[in-house]
Design brief:
The protein has 11 helices and 8 strands. It is α/β, with parallel strands linked by helices. The protein has one domain: Aldolase class I (TIM Barrel, Alpha-Beta Barrel), CATH 3.20.20.
């Protein structure tokens, strides 16, 4: 279970590296096997390369060398993705997370060339591909993902196309959405890159542990209990609800970078209801 860690910001709008370190420590104390820094939940589109790497280094210093840390290095510019992936490797990343290029709308041949080129730029660094057509418009179908899985250092995919979620030979499958985590565990996939684990990490780790013990019935029970949390953290674009939840729990301030804005009162009420519904103590409005 990997958590796609949110990026805390200061009141001035700069990246709060100390806040990132504190949040990382909290997540590891509450079930996460490792973390993804600079992913979608970390507001990667509005982070500079320097901010991403500085935050990554701060978190690495906090958690030590034995914790799995993945760095988001995917962009819609293959050259840029190669450069950022090299920077992440130099900073001590255990793997890169590279999204299907957005906005450019590449065809399958272009998607293939993008991933092959980034993988070749840092051949010793494992890569996790990230397929999320709801954000990037284009989709890498299972056949294409399987072909890319034949590249030596492309080892996994974060699959956020729920309709095509399933085993792919040669790739570890990570759920890209919390509500499909159970499905991945049921077919023997690797796990999840999660948002909800910021607030229910212990329970999500218990799901993983139950599955490893072949107790899928228990994993299903936990998943059913957490469904309202998944829904509450999806009332609007991620990480808007998550930042509201983190503030309510006293874990990080509710600050985002434009063009993302804080949750409105109705959305905050939905988040609060979800948190209180599983017995969490809300300490802020």
């Amino acid at each position: 279970m990997l958590t796609a860690i949110a990026t805390p910001f200061t009141e001035a709008g700069t990246v709060d590296n100390d806040g990132g370190r504190r949040l990382a420590a909290h997540l590891l104390e509450h079930g996460s096997h490792g973390l993804v820094v600079g992913g979608t939940t970390g507001e990667c589109p509005t982070l500079t390369d320097g901010e991403t790497i500085e935050l990554f280094r701060a978190i690495r210093k906090e958690v030590g060398d034995d914790i799995l840390l993945v760095c988001g290095t995917g962009t819609n510019d293959t050259r840029h993705s190669c450069e950022l992936t090299k920077m992440a490797a130099d900073a001590g990343a255990d793997a890169s997370l590279v999204v299907v290029p957005y906005y450019n709308k590449p065809n399958p041949a272009g998607i293939r060339a993008h991933f092959e080129t980034v993988a070749a730029a840092v051949p010793d660094l494992p890569m996790v591909m990230y397929n999320i057509p709801s954000r990037v418009i284009v989709n890498a179908d299972p056949q294409l993902l399987g072909e890319l899985g034949q590249v030596d250092n492309i080892v996994a995919v974060k699959q956020a196309n729920d309709a095509e979620l399933g085993p792919i030979e040669g790739l570890a499958i990570l759920a890209g959405n919390d509500n499909t985590y159970l499905r991945v565990l049921e077919f023997g996939g690797a796990g999840v890159i999660s948002v909800a684990s910021h607030v229910v990490g212990d329970q999500m780790r218990a799901m993983y542990d139950a599955a490893q013990e072949d107790n899928l019935e228990r994993a299903r029970e936990i998943d059913a209990e957490l469904t309202p949390v998944y829904e509450g953290l999806s009332v609007t674009t991620n990480p808007i609800p998550l930042k509201a939840a983190l503030e309510m729990l006293g874990l990080a301030p509710d600050r985002l970078r434009l063009p993302l804005v804080s949750a409105d009162p109705e959305q905050r009420a939905a988040v609060r209801t979800a948190l209180e519904g599983i017995g969490l103590s809300v300490v802020a409005g």
